[in-house]
């Protein structure tokens, strides 16, 4: 597999995401300028200029018309994907950590950090409304005795939201009641990323406790565990095969004394059902911060602390490889 290298970010990557068709790849980093690329050849199409701090995460709606970004400059911004024009700015008091589009693309959820004496709160906003109207709903996460949210996603039919927290808790929220329904603590350290599978039946969490775990998205029942020797920053479920891809490695702050071999900066492939690792892909010379699999399952992209996005198209060896069971 010869990767396509995308080099536009001056600092480390924080999030990469494909659109629904998989022809576009969106990336954000600590250099405040999210970018969009053609995933087929790595051509850069443009950037979304306006943030004044690290862009922690981004999401694109189902028809690739709107992009939402959450930044450390205490704003969540809504963009027109095609023109790069800024549509709306949602101003908060503290840095924004999470943002995600609902399945229908009409609502966004976003959260802020609990710093400077401010609580961590989760907001739901209808993007069709004027930004002056404020959020349609908000939940004070800190008031419920929970730590700050570090990741989040919408559940089946937009009926609930699942958030991951920096103490390893996983919480399911009912949208109508605006209250927590289920709470689990599957991890002993911060949850770095949550990703659902293609049909929104399972989600995979990745954590600094060196594991990624698979859950039923409706019940939060723990199903599988994928164990490594280094923190896992991101994990994705393949839509084509029973595989998951994990990315991580020794934390960037400790990397000065680390060689590429001992840092474990590879993307690691595990069998979804058997929890067995069967392959690794080298390339990054720092920890992998974010991983996304193409919606057709025939390629994947990884973004690292080294500021590079690498797109790998799978060889026929991988596509033909199968474990009979």
UniProtKB/TrEMBL annotation:
<keyword id="KW-0853">WD repeat</keyword>
<dbReference type="GO" id="GO:0016282">
    <property type="term" value="C:eukaryotic 43S preinitiation complex"/>
</dbReference>
<comment type="function">
    <text>Component of the eukaryotic translation initiation factor 3 (eIF-3) complex, which is involved in protein synthesis of a specialized repertoire of mRNAs and, together with other initiation factors, stimulates binding of mRNA and methionyl-tRNAi to the 40S ribosome. The eIF-3 complex specifically targets and initiates translation of a subset of mRNAs involved in cell proliferation.</text>
</comment>
<comment type="similarity">
    <text>Belongs to the WD repeat STRAP family.</text>
</comment>
<keyword id="KW-0648">Protein biosynthesis</keyword>
<feature type="repeat" description="WD">
    <location>
        <begin position="184"/>
        <end position="225"/>
    </location>
</feature>
<dbReference type="InterPro" id="IPR036322">
    <property type="entry name" value="WD40_repeat_dom_sf"/>
</dbReference>
<dbReference type="Pfam" id="PF24805">
    <property type="entry name" value="EIF3I"/>
</dbReference>
<feature type="repeat" description="WD">
    <location>
        <begin position="48"/>
        <end position="89"/>
    </location>
</feature>
<keyword id="KW-0963">Cytoplasm</keyword>
<keyword id="KW-0396">Initiation factor</keyword>
<dbReference type="InterPro" id="IPR027525">
    <property type="entry name" value="eIF3i"/>
</dbReference>
<dbReference type="InterPro" id="IPR015943">
    <property type="entry name" value="WD40/YVTN_repeat-like_dom_sf"/>
</dbReference>
<dbReference type="GO" id="GO:0001732">
    <property type="term" value="P:formation of cytoplasmic translation initiation complex"/>
</dbReference>
<feature type="repeat" description="WD">
    <location>
        <begin position="281"/>
        <end position="311"/>
    </location>
</feature>
<dbReference type="GO" id="GO:0003723">
    <property type="term" value="F:RNA binding"/>
</dbReference>
<dbReference type="InterPro" id="IPR019775">
    <property type="entry name" value="WD40_repeat_CS"/>
</dbReference>
<dbReference type="GO" id="GO:0033290">
    <property type="term" value="C:eukaryotic 48S preinitiation complex"/>
</dbReference>
<dbReference type="GO" id="GO:0003743">
    <property type="term" value="F:translation initiation factor activity"/>
</dbReference>
<dbReference type="InterPro" id="IPR001680">
    <property type="entry name" value="WD40_rpt"/>
</dbReference>
<comment type="similarity">
    <text>Belongs to the eIF-3 subunit I family.</text>
</comment>
<comment type="subunit">
    <text>Component of the eukaryotic translation initiation factor 3 (eIF-3) complex.</text>
</comment>
<keyword id="KW-0677">Repeat</keyword>
<protein>
    <recommendedName>
        <fullName>Eukaryotic translation initiation factor 3 subunit I</fullName>
    </recommendedName>
</protein>
<dbReference type="GO" id="GO:0071541">
    <property type="term" value="C:eukaryotic translation initiation factor 3 complex, eIF3m"/>
</dbReference>
<feature type="repeat" description="WD">
    <location>
        <begin position="6"/>
        <end position="37"/>
    </location>
</feature>
């Amino acid at each position: 597999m010869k990767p396509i290298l995308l080099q536009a970010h001056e600092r480390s990557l924080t999030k990469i995401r494909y659109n629904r068709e998989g022809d576009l790849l969106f990336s954000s980093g600590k250099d405040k300028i999210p970018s969009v690329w053609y995933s087929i050849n790595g051509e850069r199409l443009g950037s979304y200029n306006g943030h004044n701090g690290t862009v922690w995460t981004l999401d694109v709606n189902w028809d690739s018309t709107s992009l939402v970004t959450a930044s450390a400059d205490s704003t969540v911004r809504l963009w027109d994907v095609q023109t790069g024009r800024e549509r709306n700015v949602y101003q908060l008091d503290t840095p924004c950590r999470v943002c995600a589009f609902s399945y229908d693309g009409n609502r966004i959820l976003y959260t802020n950090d609990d710093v400077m004496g401010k609580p961590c709160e989760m907001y739901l906003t209808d993007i069709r409304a004027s930004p002056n109207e404020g959020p349609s709903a908000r939940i004070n996460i800190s008031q419920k005795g929970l730590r700050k949210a570090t990741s989040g996603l919408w559940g089946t039919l937009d009926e609930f939201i699942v958030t991951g927290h920096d103490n390893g808790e996983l919480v399911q929220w009912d949208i109508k009641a605006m209250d927590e329904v289920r709470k689990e603590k599957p991890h002993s350290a911060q949850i770095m990323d949550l990703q659902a599978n293609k049909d929104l039946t399972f989600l995979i969490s990745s954590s600094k406790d060196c594991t990624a775990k698979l859950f039923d998205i409706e019940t939060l029942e723990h199903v599988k565990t994928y164990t490594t020797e280094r923190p896992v920053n991101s994990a994705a479920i393949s839509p084509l095969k029973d595989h998951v891809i994990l990315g991580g490695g020794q934390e960037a702050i400790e990397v000065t004394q680390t060689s590429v071999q001992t840092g474990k900066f590879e993307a690691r492939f595990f069998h979804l059902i058997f929890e067995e690792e069967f392959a690794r892909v080298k390339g990054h010379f720092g920890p992998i911060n974010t991983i996304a699999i193409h919606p057709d399952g025939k390629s994947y992209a990884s973004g690292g602390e080294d500021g590079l996005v690498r797109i790998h198209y799978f060889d026929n060896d991988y596509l033909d490889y199968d474990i009979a069971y």
